[in-house]
Amino acid sequence: MKHHRRRLAAAVAAGIAAALGSTPGPAAAHPFGDPQTVSIALDGARPEVVRVRWKAGGLDDLVLLGVSLGLLPKDRVMLDGAVFYRDSDAAAIGPSDRFAAYLLKQITVAGGGKACTGTVEPPSDLAKSGVTVDYTCPGPVGTATVAVHMLTDLNPAYQTLATGPKGERAVYRQGEDSHDWPLGAAAPGAGLGRSAALQLGAVVGGLLLAGAAALLFVKKRKAKEIAKP
Question: What pLDDT, on the 0 to 100 scale, is given for residue 28?
Answer without folding.
Answer: 56
